[in-house]
Each structure stands twice: as structure tokens, then as C-alpha cells.
Amino acid sequence: MKAVTFADQVRVKIFAGNGGNGVATFRREKFVPKGGPDGGDGGDGGSVYLRASKDVSSLLDLYFAPLVRAEHGENGRSRQQYGRKGADTFVPVPLGTVAQDLETGEPVGEVLEDGETLLVARGGRHGLGNLHFKTATHQAPTEKTDGEKGEAKTLLLTMKTVADVGLVGYPNAGKSTLLSAVSAARPKTGAYPFTTLHPNLGTISLDAVHAIRMADVPGLIEGAHEGVGLGHEFLRHIERSGRLLYVLDMAGVDGRKPVDDFESLRREIALYGQGLAERPFAVVANKMDLPAAAENLAEFKKETGLDPIRLSAATGTGIETLKNALAAWFFPGETIFEF
What we know:
Layout (H helix, E strand, L loop, with lengths): L8 E7 L32 E5 L7 H5 L2 E3 L19 E5 L3 E5 L5 E5 L5 E5 L30 E8 L5 E5 L5 H8 L17 E6 L5 E6 L26 E7 L8 H15 L8 E6 L6 H12 L4 E2 L8 H12 L9
Parallel strand pairs: 1-3, 2-4, 9-11, 9-12, 12-13, 13-14
Antiparallel strand pairs: 1-8, 2-7, 5-6, 5-8, 10-11
């Protein structure tokens, strides 16, 4: 059985805490009818929140432990002692996690920034002690109320990577190698298709204050929007990317024409929807150090009218050119300082 090392969608059961019950008790004092009411209130039940964390990269922990509970509120006690509130539970999730209520089908919300929280199940309200029911004509009340039940929900949590730019390309186009060349990310790379099995995120530090987050997803192939290959499962991870980089194997190592790859990728992105086809994009001509790359590049420029950014992710040639292009793309008119 293959070990699960990544999860970007999980079903979880959430239980908020119940409110504590109020109590009906009486103190013992001379000349006070039945000693007088002194029953305290219960405590509120704890609530359950999602909390976005930049240190969490997938929903794997929830995949293995899909049951989440918050603490119940304590019952009230005599002598007007109120029960302690149940502790809230904060569930760490990746940035960009979306929650949907599976029972109603309604969206619950999402968390995008580090530290942002989302209430997903509210704790039950506390019950009242008999102290609250005393009136001028009702000096010895025995009434009290029980705490409310906390909310219980079944949620579908879906991780959608938060990145500035998403890498799109065929398997073996060199996207993972490119990501490792421009950032500190170290995705698995190899000279065979579908090396990348799950999304990877890297940060390109242009200087001390300017940075770009880049997402790499498994390679797309023809029919990806219909579920063919691996990339269809992870296209959601570039939904939040404001811009796209189409990475092409300009040397045609796998025997395909780069212009055909580009047209196929554009078609798959358009068919997937979510407005991805309308996003600003640039094209990266990778593997320019290999034979046939120059000839294929000339053909690509002639047929598309586009002028790709030329580089070789494997050798590092052209990486600075790409960084400069990204800086001009994302921070036009700003000064980028060298480290």
C-alpha cells in the first residue's frame, strides 16, 4: 500500500463544544426564604476555527485525523460560581484553504493570509442558573436552563495554493527544475514524465523587500480538463494565480512541436474555466541549450507572434533574465536592489 504524503482535499467532521448547564441551588441564611437562590451559569462551549499557517503545506494531518472537537463548557455551581468556558480549537491549515458545508452545500469561507482565522462551528451558549429567575414575587425559583448543543458539521476542506504566478506546462517541460533554479524550493526532478505528483510552492526573492510566490503543478496533457493525466486534479492550485507562465520544452525532447504544446495548453486552460484563459501570461522557452531549440524557437515566434523568455533551467542560463522580466512584470517602475 502506497504511503499518503500529500492531501489537498479532505472531509472532516467538526464538533463545537456544548454549553454548560445552569444549576438550581440555594444558600442557607437565616431569615432568607429557602436560603435564597445562588445557582451559577454554565460556561459557553468552545468554538472551532480554521487558522491559516504559512508553515502548513497540505491537509495531510486532517487526512489522518478527520475528527475535530472543541471543549465543552463546565456546568455552573452553587454560591454563584459560573462554569468555565470551553477552550476553542484552532485547526492549522495551508494558506488558501476553502471550507464547504457538505450537508447544505453552502460555502463556509476561506483563509488566505498567515494567521487569518475562520469560524467553522460555533460553541453552544451557556445555560442559566436559578439566580436569574428570582423576582419580587418569586423568591425561591427552582428554574434553570441547560446549555445549548455546539454546532456539528461535516466539511469539505480544499486547499488552493496562494501564488502570484502559476507554472503551466507539459510533463517533462522542466517546470520543477525551473522552480528550484529561481527559488529555495526543492521539488523532485527527473528525466521522465510526471515527476511532479503534487503542487509545489516557491518564493523568488528579488531583493530584501520584493518577492514573488510561484506555484508548480503536475504537467498537463491533452484532455486534462476531463480528468486525463495528473494535472487536472491540481489545476485548482493555479486558480488564485494572477498570472501564468507557460513553460515549453523548446528542444522538443519528447518529439512534440513546442507550438502544438502551447496551443494545447491554452486550450486545456480555457476548457478548465475559472477565468484562467483571461489571465495575463508569458512564455518561457526552456532547454535552449539543446539541439533543435533554436530552430523550434524561430518557428514558434513565426506562428504565434510571441517572443518567449529564453533559458535553460538545467544549466542556469537565462535565469537572471527571467527574474528581471518577472520584476518588471510585477513591480513596474520600482527599483529592485541587488543582494
